[in-house]
Specification:
Elements (H helix, E strand, L loop, with lengths): L16 H11 L6 E11 L5 E9 L4 H8 L6 E2 L7 E2 L1 E6 L6 H11 L4 E4 L5 E6 L5 E2 H14 L7 E3 L14 E2 L20 H10 L4 H26 L12 H13 L4 H6 L2 H6 L2 H18 L4 H15 L5 H22 L12 E7 L2 E8 L2 E7 H4 L2 H11 L12 H13 L2 E2 L8 H14 L16 E3 L6 E4 L1 H11 L9 H10 L3 E7 L2 E9 H4 L17
Parallel strand pairs: 11-14
Antiparallel strand pairs: 1-2, 3-10, 4-8, 5-7, 5-9, 6-7, 11-12, 12-13, 15-16, 16-18, 17-18
Helix pairs in contact: 1-5, 4-6, 7-10, 7-11, 10-11, 10-12, 11-12, 16-17
Length: 554
Amino acid sequence: MTAEKPKTPWPKPEPTEAELIERAMRLFRGSSTHHGTYTLLGEVRPDGKVKTKGATLTGGATAELWRGHLGDGDPLGVSPVQDDGMCGWGAIDRDEYALNHAAIATEIEELGLPLTVVKSKSSGAHLLAGVFEDDIPAALMQEALAFMRDLLGLAKGIEIYPKQTEHKGPKSTNWLNMPYRHGTDTVCVRPDGTELSFPEFIHRFEGRRRGKAWYEKFVKEARAEAKAKAKAARKDDAPGEAPRGGGGGGEARLEFWRLQMHKPDEKTFRETMNEKARFEVHANSQLTAAAYDLARFCRHDGLSPDRARSVIYGEWLYRKTDEPQTEADESFEDVWQRQYEKGWAEGAPIFGGLPVYDQVFVTEDGDDTTFRLVVGGKTIPAIKARDWLDQKKFNALALIYLEDTYPELAWKDRGKWRLHVTEARARAEPDPLVANISRGDTFVELLNDFIHNTQRSASRDDILLKRAWLDDEAEDPAYYFRLGDLQNFIRDANTPEFGKPKRPEIAARIRKLGGSDLALKLMGDSVRCFWVPRSAVGGPAEPIDTPPPPTREV
């Protein structure tokens, strides 16, 4: 009886280039609005980094772009933040050179982290993390990678992708160079030092991905450990002292600063700052205060430094959309690094009770009273009386102008704050910096300019040309105009006494002058207009009849 011939396993066919590119696109899924590329400048920095000139281009990564990246086309960079703010991969970017990639891969294996080591173009390392099945929020990936970086003992300054946690349109998120660029050694390295081919890398990276539940559990456990360490460090740094008040925890303070940085006219910003101060606050001033303040929460409340930096950086780019990204990045890093170090060094001192005012100045105009407060040599330039009585709104301004806050009193002790404000107001002096002219007087002057110094209207339809029309045939002559045209005129004037008023205030002042609103038929359409009596603003100056020159008798 002859022995049965052993079966030869059916050889698995090698994946085609199209199949590999399709799998790579699934692994590195990202923004559909933009991608990146770069040009080599042929120079190497003293630290070993290859100099390049990057560019962010419209449109997401396509199969054609991947084909060019792997071949002799342009290099490809992909942003991990998808259009809905979700994320399918991320990376720790070790921008150090002459690394032992095999040793890094070995340490990752020993720690049980789901990272894949790939060489960067300057022989640094990209430590890639992937997600299978459902995507995860970019913020979760960012936080998970920050904790992994800590476990690896890496410096806080080492970058993490995604850098942003939200996708706010084209070119709003940073991209990372993809591996296996043609002609480079940007390849995957195993713990034994083996460098993998592109198909082998795709297979390895696919197998090392983790699901959403794994990332959530990992971050939850890491947060708890960080919180415990922060608590222990706080006790060591300041025995007997409690954490400073007024913040509501690191996450609450980070959300506060996100809203402050987002847009000068955002609802929350309007609620926490009065009109005059709101327009005086520059993005750099907000960044200075945010970095200084958040550093203390990172040190003493367990707030992730990378999360704090990323959130504020994302809002910074949103505010700086008119600037080239390279300039915005440089200015951000300069301010953030200096102020963050100052805040970190200071730690979390406790303010001793209520603020002590060096000087209190007041500017009164009927119901509209504004104060200028000098505290410890620093100045809150303008705060309305009702905002000063609200300790939360006072603290919002104190963070920006004084670079600190005061512990918020418990609800049962709120009367102490009101008494404190009342006593300070009692010794307020007239503000010498404000001209001796009321807001109401300024409004009348501006209204007169709008009515008399713009081009005269020939008919009521000329109101649509942003002019005021005088109905002098009525029993009570009045000027008619659109409220928005007057508002724009006042805003363009930008007087220090009146600033940039809102429509309700303008309407209220018109009614104080005896005017109101009504619907007028203009060019066949009903248009809402406002009117003021001619007697309230007067008419144009009457021409003076000058006598003829005397004649000389010859």
